[in-house]
## 1
Amino acid sequence: MGINIPAETAVKILQRLGLSLVGRPTDEQAHFRAPTYRRDLTREIDLVEEVARIYGYDKLPSDVVVPLCTSSKSQRERIVERIGETLTAVGFYESMTPAFTSAADRQWFQPRGDAAPLSVDHSSRRQENLLRQTLIPSLVGSRRANERQGNFGVKLFEVAKVYLAADPDREEREVEPWMIGLVAGESYVDLKGVVELLAKRVNPRSEVSVRPSSIGQFTPGRGAEVLLNGELWGWLGELDRKICDAADLRDGVCVAELDLERLEQTADLVPRAERLPEYPG
């Protein structure tokens, strides 16, 4: 910011704003837990801005050179970028959907069975008051909205969080995992090819396989669990016609949902060249 604000002053400002101090602060760093109603406070810079706002913008000099440093994309950011490039290249459009869904829409896809969803009791959320456990119902709703506007055959994807539990003592990947959701009017075989392409684009040596799935929303015999290098990665299949009718879809759809972190664990974005065999045979 161009000025030095005493650490004790900064801590008091953040505490008065409702943040809880975690551990003992030092002159170099302090850890805080933001209140649930301050969803905008997710990064260190967000706290810096709050301190500056309360301390007073008028006290910040306008003629001081602020030190800057270069930054680079994180591994996850590069993987998400690679996913977007790959899917848009094969005709998909990225979608951004709300994290809430309704009890009726939730029935369209339940890969984790009947696990009770998290809900919000608020006057503004009387109908769509459930936190999604999967991205698929939201994407199916987006496809339906496109069909109603005459955009038939649209292929959609989203990379976002789902919400499985409210337990601050468990790791984020267990309670709020990042998933990759795909919805398209393609056949099971075609969408399986897209899933395999995603894996290969992140690591050319990845091996994708499938095994039968018992998810009730799939057409019998046309649903599978997807394995990445032998470990569960997600689900892939054709939605049953009764689900498409309940969602008011004209055309049938095939869906896939994949664990982003599982893909990230296998990442090799810059593979090394290997010497070709001198005597192939």
Note: The longest helix spans residues 75-89.
## 2
Amino acid sequence: MKADELREAYLAFFESKGCVRRPSDVLVPRWDPSVLFTPAGMNQFKDHFLGACKLEFTRATTCQKCLRTGDIDNVGRTPRHHTFFEMLGNFSFGDYFKREAIHWAWEFLTARTWLNMAPEKLSVTVYRDDDEAYRIWSDEIGVPAERISRMGEDDNFWPASAPSQGPDGVCGPCSEIFFRMPDGSDVEIWNLVFTQFNREGPPPDNLRPLPSRNIDTGMGLERTCAMLQGVESNFHIDILRPIVEAVADVCGRRYEPASDDGRRMRRIADHVRACTFAIHENVLPG
């Protein structure tokens, strides 16, 4: 499945579940002083999650252009890290919650009419205290216990470590879905965040249930494409490999993935892509 096909399939699937298809927000959200670039699909819905605006819809789906620099040292070195990437997402603002989010994620991934991934290649994690999510995965979806892991707040809470370290505010446990690669490694492809608490002060007993529970999910387009296309690196999917090969042509060298030059070419390809989208929104070098 090509990247364009995956993007459209995701949005169409969640439209069929009653979600309103919204366009990607800008990459440079000048209305939001808390970020330089849009880091995630939920960014354009901050006011929706906080109940600070009139809701014209309670379900949404997007493919958001994102730019993050936190992992910049890993770009090109690993097969999964980027600065610019696309995040597929589905959202609920006081509407559907865990059961629907989990069932729909599994349906999209495994149904023959959608991605048709082999269920035995998928595993999941849940927050250590989230018995509700565990039961849905185990009893309703039928994921075997050996493929469900309970993890701590560093791995399966959003924001990470929020219960003990903060910040105060809206937060919740999450459930991550992993795909088993041919080499036996597991790659995270989808994160389902169950925004159900408001953190107030230090622990203990600092997580107050929200009156309106929300869903915020994120699936990496490039990562999922790599799984579907059977390639070992995000940089080798249909929308990125041509850029890497173009870098090799400009440099007058052959692209060899395992070489130091291969790493450098992937990094150049990533940065050229990020700069192109940034320049499109009038972020200029200087």
Note: Residues 260-280 form the longest helix (21 residues).
## 3
Amino acid sequence: MNGVPDLIVIDLDGTLLCPRGQVSESNRRALAEARGAGVRIMIATGRTHVECRQILEAIDYQGPMVVASGAALIDLPSESTLDRDLMDQDDVVVLSEIMRDHDCASLILKDRHAVGYDYLIVGSQHLHPVSNWWFDAHGIACRTADSAEEDSHPEDTLRIACIGAPDLMGQAAERVSDRLGQSVSWRHWPAVGREGEVVHMLEVFGSGVDKWTMVERYAIDQGIPRERVAAIGDGLNDIQLLRECGFGIAVDNADDQVIEAADARTGCHSQDGVADAVDRLLRGWS
């Protein structure tokens, strides 16, 4: 990279966070040094801001952050929504029916700032134990309904998802592709679960939703050129971000597709790869 970036975008799980889900002192210190040098730090995560409050407090985070893999831009500490990409309610109804046919609860993520709660759960009798654990651990506010057609806030949906065994999520993903094609964006991949438990999440967004799409809109609004944006990530929802930003960096534990999309690599998330990358970026990646 030529010179120090104006904005560094950083993923959480598998990137900033160590395997125990914590921020190391080295990584925390590196972020503080970057801010002290006048570089903006932006978190871009698949989580919602409510699902990472303790992490954000640990790094003294303030300002805009990308949540739900690019479906919204949230300001902290106000927790107000600055920008968002919403789903079509007709698509949500179809998707919820597909998830019901696979005996899965539909986790319909809402714009909390607009509606006052986090998820509408359709078919709660099929809620996966991992979802119960996750909601309890993070103090997630939920409402329930028997069908997506009962949604009181259909105009405020950011994402719909379900949790289950990898093969079951793969089957549901095929149905999504067959029924809705390019009208939505989706992926199924490993979800954060309890220790030793392997589950996948199928998550579906409106067409074109991506971390980079939201970061790019923010950068344009702030007058930050694409070439002055660096990003660090590891997951499938980081591929477009790393490919399109001025300088994309994959941690060593990243998926092969992510590494291929990046311009450079840094150490893995268990060895303070973010701290090493930020230090090099502050020196012009020398």
Note: The longest helix spans residues 166-180.
## 4
Amino acid sequence: MLKCEWRVSSELPLDPDVAASVSVIIPCYRAAATIGRALASVAAQSHKPREVIIVDDASDDKTKKVLRELSEKYDANWLKVYFLPENCGPAAARNYGWEQAGQPFVAFLDADDSWHQEKIALQFGFMKRYPEVVLSGHDCGRESILVRRVARLCQIRPCTLKQLLWHNCLRTPTVMIKRAAVLHFPVDFRYGEDYYLWLGLLATGARAAFLDLPLAVVHKPAFGASGQSAALWRMEQGELRALQAVWRRGSVSSTMITLAMIWSGLKFSRRLLICMVKGRRA
């Protein structure tokens, strides 16, 4: 069983001079303005990952130029940059990076987000201590968390399939997963591909955990910005497809999935209302 309380000081006898056995994967598309910040937050980790893999998804702006400049700045054995010939979406870009990964653990970061400097040390330490856990996530916070010291105690909660049906607590920039996980991202999804994967893994019996520490910053809002109404609907469609897929696996009952889809629709209505209100104020 996973512990309810985790004492950081006693659970992490890790040597910071030895790189963590983690491949960080960052999909990148039109992210010239933010990819440097994301990469810098990885380079600043107290326990650095062994490698970082950036996959450019056929950006048509200055992103490629910025990536080439970053390649010259960092060690070539640590930072590996790949350029896809055509835009395939974040799922395909993450899968491509996953295939190149040479470490037993993979951590995902989006090109416009960043990590607290203790993220790898804490999460990798947890994953090493509990080998039965296939994937884990943690909380996100405001930019001010990046300069704070993390708490010495944190709650660790098992994340079950039924819980995930109601609330996706595993945001992609927080997830660390075993490289050998039996499923990858669905390449035919442009939205909801992460939710599909988490649900699919838990449906196979994989164990997941949530560390109640804010170790990442998502710099743009998940929803509610002006002009995002159309994207909100595509996000909702992706979520519904993910729910339907886990039902087809026979992992949840028809009653349970119907209630989950109704709940998803209610959440979508709330997000749409917030988006409309913010749009009028803008």
Note: The two ends are 49 Å apart (CA to CA).
